[in-house]
Amino acid sequence: MNEDTYWEIATRQMPLVSKEEQEKFKDAKITVIGCGGIGGETIEMLARMGIGELVLVDEDSFDITNLNRQSLSTTQTIGHEKSVVAKEKVNLINPHVKVTNHTTHVNGDNIDEIIGDSNLVIDALDNVLTRVIATRHAREKKIPYIHGAIHGTLGQITVFLPNTKSYEEMFNLPSLGKPLSEEVIENLKNVTSGPPPVIGPTPNLIGCLEAMEAYKIITGIGKVTVAPKMLSFDLLDLSSFSIDEL
After folding, report:
1. Is the dihedral of CA 77, 215, 233, 106 positive or negative?
2. Angle ∠(180,57,148) on CA atoms, nearest 5
3. What are phi and psi of 208, to 5 degrees?
4. What is the pTM of this model?
5. What is the DSSP secondary-structure string of 177-241?
6. Residue 108 in 3-state DSSP?
7. ∠ Cα 150 154 157 (to 5°)
8. Strands 154-160 and 229-234
9. For residue 55, with 0-12 CB atoms within 10 Å meaning exposed, 13-18 middle and 19 or more buried, which class applies?
10. What CA–CA distance (Å, rounded) separates 215 from 181?
11. Is residue 166 within 8 Å of residue 138, measured between CB atoms?
């Protein structure tokens, strides 16, 4: 595909942004950590909006329990690595997007290589320890970090910048101000009490919102929800949508 097809794909959103603003998105690189429920939708939206480059990270493969919510999962992808399936889906949607995938567990030894020179990091994770590792690195490198999380019908999203409250500060985690010793790591693991209950619309809505926050940050349009402010909601009560300050 030539350059013209990129702009044909983006045609319907161009009344909302200038060509210069869309060029910023076209030239940007985003790391998405997690290719499951939240991540699958985030990745798809970023590809459709015309992101230039994606780094996709997930250590897991799809299983049958993912079918109720994870948009990249089908009966045909069960047993397939999530990051590989995500890369293939992006290539089908928008071949102008450069994609690198990692089927690996994120830790302190590989986080620098994974994020590299990304302009932005998106959290599509389901555990606190990996979030701490990723947010600490993003903060050190002065990279915006978009946080999203869900539990059942509850969702939350915020953006951490180098000069805002950190993830650990905002949620008063036991790791705050401490090196990641074995004891601290164990305490962080205890914060996450197993796989949360979830219904399909919740992670997919968070994924869409994270993709839009990324678009706003990179293009400069709109108002970003920056920490300590956080958007939260309960899909069982649509009047619950609110932006609160922690």
Report:
1. positive
2. 70
3. -60, -45
4. 0.96
5. TS---HHHHHHHHHHS-SSPPB-THHHHHHHHHHHHHHHHHHH--S---BTTEEEEEETTEEEEE
6. coil
7. 60
8. antiparallel
9. buried
10. 36
11. no
Sign for the CA dihedral angle at 9, 15, 19, 21 comes to negative
What are the start-end ranges of the E strands in 4-153?
29-33, 53-57, 98-102, 120-123, 145-151
Structure tokens at 45: 């939206």
Which tokens is 179 given? 């090196």
CA distances from 205 to 62, 92, 153, 215, 232 (A): 20, 22, 10, 15, 11
Dist CA 150 CA 20 (whole Å): 34
- Residue 232 contacts residue 155 (beta carbons within 8 Å): yes
| pLDDT tens, per residue, the chain with 246 residues | 788 999 999 999 999 999 999 999 999 999 999 999 999 999 999 999 999 999 999 999 999 999 999 999 999 999 999 999 999 999 999 999 999 999 999 999 999 999 999 999 999 999 999 999 999 999 999 999 999 999 999 999 999 999 999 999 999 999 999 999 999 999 998 887 677 899 999 999 999 999 999 999 999 999 999 999 999 999 999 999 999 998
Q: Helices 201-219 and 19-26 sit at what angle, rounded to 10 degrees?
A: 110
Structure tokens at 39: 């991540």
**Percent of the chain clearing pLDDT 90 (strictly above):** 94
Residue written as token pair 């998106």: 122
Structural contact between residues 48 and 94, judged by C-beta atoms closer than 8 angstroms: yes
Number of other residues whose CB lies within 10 A of the CB of residue 12 = 8
